[in-house]
Amino acid sequence: MNDELEYRAVLAVDIERSAGRGDRALLEIRARLTQMLKEAFEASGVDWSACLRHDLGDGLRVTAPAGTRKAALVHPLVPELALRLRTYNRGASPLTRIRVRIALHAGDVHVSPDGTVAGSPLEVLARLLDAPPARAALAGAPETVPASLLLSGHFYDETVRHGHLGLFPEDFRRVGFTVKEHTADAWLQLPGRELPPDPDPDAAGAAPEPADVQEEPAGSETAGSKMVNKASGHGVVYATQHGTQHIRIERKH
After folding, report:
1. Strand, coil or helix: 111
2. Strands 173-179, 212-215: parallel, antiparallel or unpaired by DSSP?
3. Model's pTM, two decimal places?
4. What is the tens place of the pLDDT at every residue in 17-49?
5. Which residues are CB-neighbours of 160 under 8 A, at least 6 positions away?
6. Bridge partners of residue 100, in order along the sequence
7. How far is residue 9's CA from residue 1's CA, in Å, rounded to a whole number?
8. C-beta atoms surrounding 102 within 10 Å
9. Of 182, 185, 98, which is closest to residue 143 (Cα–Cα)?
10. Three-state DSSP class for residue 126
């Protein structure tokens, strides 16, 4: 076994909801994704032919050549891939549309003469690819959003945090996750789209604020109607334009 370690950047993509499409559709989307990845790598100045590629079944893992500038794998590679995916999806049938989760990490790996790559960085990459925050972000995004991106803390610290050209730290959100035995923080982005705000963990247990209600003076055009200025917490508001308004407050016990 080769005991020499090489520091490499590693990228993985996984096709969302690939199961159940049938063999013909899966073969089509795998081929399309591989071609778009190749074009995105080359547009980023990374030699695709020098990359080590490994089939993940419904995705692909790519080990970049030694010395690859890691920042280029975030920008312009990810926007280039997202652009191609979105353009392709416009003309694709529902069965062959492609949305992907992208994960990026880097570290010391064993590279065998036959191109086999092994080492703990690949385990971390696999956990990033399966991380629930990345799955949820993509699932909750509009269909026009073709990808989610999750960076390991190490990769983020060495690239995005410094704000190199094309990299904006404010576009990423720190998230925590646990997959199998691996628990870590990572950095999430929806390429080309602002992430929704973080859920407020205190909001769910907060007592609802009372609704402020104003009544129109008798004799006015809207007499008999009630106008709600504010309703919050766990209140549900039902209203008619010229009728009675009902406010139900649901309290957690």
Report:
1. strand
2. unpaired
3. 0.77
4. 888 888 899 999 999 999 999 999 999 999 999
5. 71, 74, 151, 167, 168, 169, 172, 187
6. 15, 147
7. 21
8. 27
9. 98
10. helix
Terminal CA-CA length for the chain = 61
Q: Which helix (H) or strand (E) holds 91?
A: helix 77-91
Which token pair is 33? 């994704």
Give percent helix, percent strand, percent coil of the chain, each to the nearest 5: 30, 30, 40
What is the Cα–Cα distance from 85 to 148, expressed in whole angstroms?
12
| Encoded tokens for 238 | 């039902």
For residue 5, report the phi and psi dihedrals to the nearest 5 degrees. Answer: -105, 145
Instruction: Specify the long-range contacts of residues 224-233, CB closer than 8 Å, at least 24 apart.
Output: 232/208, 233/206, 233/207, 233/208, 233/209
29, two tokens: 């989307």
Peptide linkage before 121 cis (omega within 30 of 0): no
Q: pLDDT of the chain along its 253 residues, tens only?
A: 556 799 999 999 999 988 888 889 999 999 999 999 999 999 999 999 999 999 998 899 999 999 999 999 999 999 999 999 999 999 999 999 999 999 999 999 999 999 999 999 999 999 999 999 999 999 999 999 999 999 999 999 999 998 988 899 999 999 999 998 899 999 999 997 776 666 544 433 333 344 343 444 444 444 443 333 434 344 434 343 444 444 344 444 4
Distance between CA atoms of 107 and 122, rounded to whole angstroms?
9
In whole angstroms, give the CA distance from residue 92 to residue 47. Answer: 28
Cβ pair 16, 26 in contact under 8 A: no
Evaluate whether 185 touches 174 at the Cβ level (below 8 Å): yes
Question: In 21-158, where do the E strands start and end?
Answer: 52-55, 59-63, 100-111, 117-118, 147-152
